[in-house]
Design a protein that fits this description.
heterodimer, A: 450 residues, alpha/beta, D-Maltodextrin-Binding Protein, domain 2, three-stranded mixed beta sheet, 19 helices, 10 strands, B: 319 residues, MetI-like fold, two-stranded antiparallel ribbon, 76% helix, globular
Chain lengths: 450, 319
């Protein structure tokens, strides 16, 4: 989901790889980034009153409720919501449909990091002629930059995951820590105190969880990736900044103060529920997720900003979140755009997403709405968790970018970094291997690597 | 069938040369036979042959994210044969085959013989119990074993700790292959046992009587009568195991969720092909790998069959 636990992906796939390979691979040239003039209000009115059928691929549960609002406003439009899988299976089916030239939806959910991989083959519609530019002020800056790194707008932000620190207040106070660690230096000291006093790990760094590590890079101001929207990529995962972050974690892991269990599986859920981990550096979608996973620890958790590299700073990164994009192949681009916009921009719909589906909002209107931010969460001892993460959301670096082949980047992370982290090896050194693999792949695929 | 009226009409009239008449009947019968197998061939062609040919065609191209598809001849195959990850995955499955298959078939054979001897009480119940794991979908089985293997909360680890043996590490990169062998063995013992048991039941009992008259005990009968008699069935299970081993997919793909650091992308050849196709987005290279997997399976199966035949011939020669 928002978190993209990349592991649980390949479920239910038959063994007959040959057959799989065959299902739809005729190369097709999508349109994309068409340079047409702006769409007039007249066109929009006409499109929205003409009976139209739209297909919307998303894995947000109960999104039918928001779609219903849309259909009430535009009775002529009939939207079919299809859930074809979450994360990777979703993208695989989307790519197959695009390549096959038929069966692709009009609107599709796409996580921010995968947008460039659909921009590359021209599969997404540039939304600027449809008026998407006007929406930029409705979203927090950095989220808008994710869907619109240059002039084009490729999608409408749906939810985000600015990162914070969720921790067990009871365990930390047993170790004499009453305030959440403000800097990484304090965090390291606290980690030792917690381990010595209680035997718990102050947090777990999922060995193969690239999203979390990249979020931490993001916080540290590391810019490992860049893409010009055409054929040039920047790959710099082993920069000095990244190595500094890596060395910090290597040190804590080697002292056995941070665990490195694979995350989002049973073993890990139980670790969260029974105090093996006294905290989790995670994203804004996690507070609600945790309530479901570690129900029995209700009231013991608290939320805080991430520890900082420099005392007094307030910086964070992002982990996860999705947008809704319109496919270039859509025959009803205006209606499709209006759907993507409505779901994530209409006040009532956006509020519903935030308070009923618990997607953390990128919409400024929701982030400022007392009905959202003033909510007190019992699980966190009555803390206003939404308010805290709304504030954190203001501190996320705005220029973070992705590569147009993040599937490979993550899988390569598992191979090169994941095994080293799990073995408690030197993570900084593993960054070099990761860098080499990424550069090789990019060059093999015909990219110019900067 | 449709030809019978024609036949009856023909018989009383001209005594046509018998050769021609049978050939006409034969031809009609043949036509009917073709008609019967036609549906199969239609499905077989559209669902297997055409896709296979298409995959073969695809494997001759090279596709890049930038620049699209170009004809590449056998470049993908050359690349695969130099791809250390692919070769390592084949080697891993070779090890898997050499260790796991004898254990699995040995136990299956032993159980089949035990059930067939009629000495075991409640043999029907036992047969069902042994067969049951095969009825559990591989997905469920692997998830279940993932729980059993769990180092913190898995029952095996908890028992081992309480007896003071420390925590067994089933899911580390070093041990995961063994853990997987265990899962696969557990899953397929019942399946192989049923094949062997069915073969044992079809041996004429006179052979046993004759052996007993000659003074052979149960073990001697099993060794000298039963096992040689079901050799074709054993060969069948071995070949099935060759295919199953080199096509292992759901086990690694599910264990990857539980032990992502231990299961590499290229843990098994099939899993590697899948990852190349859908993660690296190199469909053409994946098609080449899939073909090579098919060739490896064909070659190993052929070697197994050949060596079995040779052995049989040699033994016949001795007698």
């Amino acid at each position: 989901m928002r978190n993209a636990p990349r592991a649980a992906l390949a479920l239910g796939v038959g063994a007959a790889i040959t057959a799989l390979v065959l299902s739809g691979c005729t190369p097709s040239s999508g349109g994309g980034g068409s340079t047409q003039g702006p769409v007039s209000q007249e066109d929009i009115d006409k499109a929205m009153t003409t009976p139209t059928k739209l297909t919307f691929w998303t894995w947000v549960p109960d999104i039918e409720n928001e779609v219903k609002l849309f259909e009430e406003k535009y009775p002529a439009i009939d939207v079919t919501v299809e859930n074809v899988g979450q994360g990777l299976p979703h993208y695989q089916k989307l790519r197959s449909a695009i390549e096959a030239g038929e069966g692709a939806p009009d609107v599709a959910q796409i996580e921010y990091q995968y947008i460039p991989s659909f921009v590359l083959p021209g599969s997404l519609l540039d939304l600027t002629p449809y008026g998407a530019d006007d929406l930029s002020g409705d979203y927090v800056d950095w989220a808008w930059n994710q869907v619109s790194p240059d002039e084009e707008v490729w999608a409408i932000p749906q939810d985000v995951g600015p990162m914070g620190n969720l921790y067990r207040e009871d365990i930390l106070s047993k170790a004499g820590i009453t305030e959440p660690p403000a800097t990484y230096e304090e965090y390291a000291t606290a980690a030792k105190a917690v381990k010595d006093a209680t035997g718990s790990y102050i947090s777990n760094l999922g060995a193969t969880q690239a999203g979390q590590m990249i979020g931490l890079f993001w916080q540290a101001g590391v810019k490992p990736f860049g893409y010009d929207g055409k054929e040039t990529v920047k790959i710099d995962v082993n920069s000095d900044g990244a190595k500094e972050v890596a060395s910090y974690w290597t040190d804590l892991i080697q002292q056995d103060l941070i665990s490195v269990d694979a995350d989002f599986n049973d073993q890990w859920y139980q670790g969260l529920a029974n105090g093996k981990y006294a905290g989790w550096l995670t994203a804004a979608w996690a507070p609600v997720f945790l309530q479901g996973t570690a129900e029995n620890t209700s009231g013991l958790w608290r939320a805080a900003p991430l520890p900082q590299w420099k005392a007094g700073e307030e910086v964070s990164g992002n982990w996860g979140g999705s947008s809704d994009a319109v496919l270039a192949s859509s025959k009803n681009p205006i209606a499709a755009y209006e759907l993507a916009k409505f779901i994530n921009n209409d006040e009532e719909s956006a509020m519903k997403l935030a308070t009923e589906q618990f997607l953390f909002p990128p919409q400024v209107s929701v982030l400022e709405d007392p009905a959202f931010v003033d909510q007190e969460s019992e699980f966190y001892g009555g803390q206003q968790v939404n308010k805290l993460f709304s504030e954190i959301s203001q501190t996320v670096d705005t220029d973070f970018q992705w590569l147009p082949f993040m599937d490979y980047v993550y899988s390569s992370y598992e191979e090169t970094m994941g095994s080293v982290i799990a073995d408690k090896g030197d993570i900084a050194a593993a960054l070099d291997t990761w860098q080499d693999q990424l550069v090789k792949y990019a060059e093999d695929q015909g990219f110019t690597v900067e | 069938m449709s030809q019978s009226p024609a036949l009856t009409a023909e018989r009383p009239s001209l005594p046509a040369p018998p050769k021609r008449r049978t050939s006409l009947t034969k031809r009609r019968q043949r036509r009917a036979a073709y008609l019967f197998i036609l549906p199969f061939f239609v499905v077989f062609t559209t669902m297997l042959v055409v896709p296979l040919v298409y995959a073969g065609y695809l494997s001759l191209f090279e596709s890049k994210l930038i620049g699209g598809e170009v004809f590449a001849g056998f470049a993908n195959y050359v690349r695969a044969l130099q791809d250390s990850a692919f070769l390592a995955s084949i080697g891993r499955m070779g090890v898997f085959f050499i260790i796991q298959v004898p254990i699995m078939l040995g136990i299956a054979l032993f159980l089949a013989l035990a059930l067939d001897s009629g000495r075991a009480r409640g043999s029907k119940g036992i047969r069902l119990l042994v067969f049951m794991p095969y009825a559990v979908p591989a997905v469920v089985a692997t998830l279940m074993w993932g729980y059993l293997y769990g180092p913190d909360f898995g029952p095996i680890a908890q028992i081992a700790r309480s007896v003071g043996w420390g925590t067994p590490e089933f899911l580390t990169p070093e041990n995961i292959l063994g853990s997987m062998m265990n899962i696969v063995t557990w899953e397929f013992i019942g399946y192989n046992m049923i094949i062997l048991y069915a073969a044992l039941r079809s041996i004429p009992t006179e052979l046993y009587e004759a052996a007993e008259l000659d003074g052979a005990g149960q073990f001697r009968v099993a060794w000298s009568v039963k096992i040689p008699a079901i050799r074709p069935a054993i060969l069948l299970t071995v070949i099935f195991s060759v295919i199953g081993t080199f096509q292992l997919f759901s086990e690694p793909s599910l264990l990857n969720a539980i032990a992502p650091d231990a299961i590499t992308n290229s843990f098994t050849p099939n899993y590697y092909a899948y990852n190349i196709a859908f993660i690296n987005q190199e469909l053409n290279y994946a098609a080449a790998i899939a073909f090579l997997i098919g060739i490896v399976i064909a070659v190993v199966s052929y070697i197994v069959q050949l060596s079995a035949q040779q052995r049989e011939r040699r033994e016949r020669g001795i007698r």
